[in-house]
Amino acid sequence: MIARKAASAVKTRKKAVGAVKAAKKPAAKKRKPGGKEGKVRICIVGMGIGRTNGRPLHKHPRGAVTTLCDLQRPLMEEFAKELGSPVAYYSDYKEMCKDPDIDAVFVGTPNQFHVPIALEAVRNGKHVLVTKPLAEALGPAQELVAEAEKAGVVNMMSLSTRFGPDVQWLGQRSRKRKLGQIYYARARSVRRSGIPGWSLGFLKKGGGAFRDMGVHVLDAVWWLMGQPVPERVLGVAGAKFGPRGKGYWGFRDVGQETYKHYESDDYGGGFIRFKNGAGLQIESFWASHQKEELNIELFGTEAGAKLDPLTVYRTENGMPVDEVVTRPKTAVGGFERIADHFIECILDGVKCEAPLRHGLIVQEMMEALLESAERGCEVKL
Ligand SMILES: NC(=O)c1ccc[n+]([C@@H]2O[C@H](COP(=O)([O-])OP(=O)(O)OC[C@H]3O[C@@H](n4cnc5c(N)ncnc54)[C@H](O)[C@@H]3O)[C@@H](O)[C@H]2O)c1
User: Fold this and answer.
1) Ligand 1 atom nearest to CA at 158
2) Is the CB of 213 within 6 Å of ligand 1?
3) CATH annotation of 23-159+335-353
4) Which fold has domain 165-332+366-380?
5) Of 296, 280, 306, 285, which is closest to residue 242 (Cα–Cα)?
6) pLDDT per residue as tens, the chain (381 positions)
7) For the CA of 113, the nearest atom of ligand 1
């Protein structure tokens, strides 16, 4: 059984590595916006993180949330009130995707529905913005990326950590080669009691801590390292709290009716070796007996850096210099930056900095780590 599963996983991974190699594609073409005012008309699917993404998209001078889609009508009505302008409602995403008055779709449902909804959207010529992780498994992620690229629509990941002000600041430094060659990194996301028990999507197969929060730091650190090609992964993962009804968000008792559905990991960690010889130590815990932390550390040949507190470590005239960076209060937030970039990609034909393909490569690393944990051996990509 394991051997059969492993063989099919290897096949899937080979396809993904091919996908990584084919990463250089032309940017999607500039498209004519719809609506009377020439704004991008957006549908928000999923009234959880959908609201957080929807607000800056709606506030944007060239964007408007015109449609909401969710299984729960009261949640849509509540958000519509907040938006303060008329919206159309859908409970069936397939119907919604046929609506000619929608230019773009944000997908913010549980992981297991990202691909079916985004696929339907791109097949109907809509631009898509998908929350993390791209998918609940590697196969569906590959299918979506292939179709989205073929459709020529703007296809983007909503990555709030990568687009956050501190990571962006470090990214600029790293792009200007101020850190030199980044040859090693550590990234971790640790919660004390943070299993999201409000949606079974997080607990069921395809959910889990690594796809929920590991994905944020993995994507951000991989981007900061210059997106090296992953080569080998060794991981451990498991569920030490969730199936026992412990470690849920804010130390809440979610009850057995919820935690009996537990099928995913509540921690995952490991090591990724890249083709350029760089190494990454990655950790993610939904629950633990440890201090809460979200951090990234970069080891460069000219300087090192840490995300929290944002610090650059250098040597000048033979002396150590630690530069603690204070971010201006006016810095643009991650979700605002995501909204702005998605809209400029659609209206101005700007090349997308966070295409779904990046989500696919991150998914490939995550799935390899989880597979390595399950099989008890290193996974070669
Ligand atoms: N910082 C971030 O980027 C961030 C933060 C939180 C969650 N997320 C991601 O957002 C996704 C949702 O998480 P959440 O916390 O918002 O969950 P949630 O349970 O609060 O919200 C999900 C919503 O999707 C709706 N939904 C479910 N299936 C649907 C379907 N088939 N069609 C239409 N609507 C459907 C539900 O009714 C619910 O309102 C997850 O994939 C998670 O990883 C991202």
Assistant:
1) 3
2) no
3) 3.40.50.720
4) Dihydrodipicolinate Reductase; domain 2 (3.30.360)
5) 285
6) 333 344 444 444 544 444 444 444 444 444 456 666 789 999 999 999 999 999 999 999 999 999 999 999 999 999 999 999 999 999 999 999 999 999 999 999 999 999 999 999 999 999 999 999 999 999 999 999 999 999 999 999 999 999 999 999 999 998 888 999 999 999 999 999 999 999 999 999 999 999 999 999 999 999 999 999 999 999 999 999 999 999 999 999 999 999 999 999 999 999 999 999 999 999 999 999 999 999 999 999 999 999 999 999 999 999 999 999 988 777 789 999 999 999 999 999 999 999 999 999 999 999 999 999 999 999 999
7) 31
Q: Where are the domains of the chain?
A: 23-159+335-353, 165-332+366-380
In this structure, what token pair is assigned to residue 359?
């989500």
64 C-alpha vs ligand 1 centroid, how far in Å? 20
